[in-house]
Amino acid sequence: MSRSRFLAAAIASLFLLAGAGSALAAHKATFKGCKSARSSNYNGSKCGPGKRHSGPGEARNVLFFTARDGHCPFATLRPTAHNLARVRASTLCLVNRERARHGERALHWNIHLIASAQAHTESMAYGDYFEHVGPNGLTPAMRMRRTGYISSSHVGYEVAENIAWGSLWLGSPRAIVRTWMHSSGHRANILDPHFRDTGIGVSPHTNGLAHGQRGGIYTQDFGVIVG
Q1: Would you state the torsion angle of the CA atoms of residues 95, 97, 101, 102, taken in this order, to the nearest 10 degrees?
Q2: Mean pLDDT across the chain, nearest whole number?
Q3: What pTM was estimated for this model as a whole?
Q4: How far is CA 2 from CA 6, 8, 10, 12, 187, in A?
Q5: Distance CA 161, CA 149 (A)
Q6: Residue closest to 200 by CA, chosen among 163, 171, 175, 226
Q7: Are strands 156-167 and 215-226 parallel, antiparallel or unpaired?
């Protein structure tokens, strides 16, 4: 690959290294105050600070790893059909390690965001596309409504999404989080102090994205509900 072609590929967030490839994208949608069915947002002063929703939305029976001596377990795993729970948990461990380094509290699993993230990951994997908006027109916020995270049209919320895919070693949790942290938009989502909840979806099925190479496709959804 010529130098000019390599630079162009890097600018487009497509990195080709010794036969391995990866790409990423970030999305953020903020609705301060009370969201209504007729307006995208209201002035935040109409609802007050609100409280984080918890209880039924908290995930149960999911793995949660804490970094020990600065390291997260299974960070170099390449996704397979048999290790996705470990890959998800390691990814969150790495994300929370970055948040801790910057003085932010840890994110916690939310079953609704897990469902949203996993559904979008599988849609990209088997639909052979790489976008935040699916072929059916669903945006990240719309998916989060469908899974119940945004449970009412009268609550305020802030949500965001990072997606990435990588082949070979670039599909490991360590490589994915490292790539996100070297991109300003993805880094901002990971370190956003407002977010409290998260869900991560992973698939080892990269379809045409990786041209037949094994790897992983990731979606991480972030959110906070107020009101």
Answers
A1: 30
A2: 76
A3: 0.77
A4: 6, 10, 12, 15, 29
A5: 14
A6: 163
A7: antiparallel
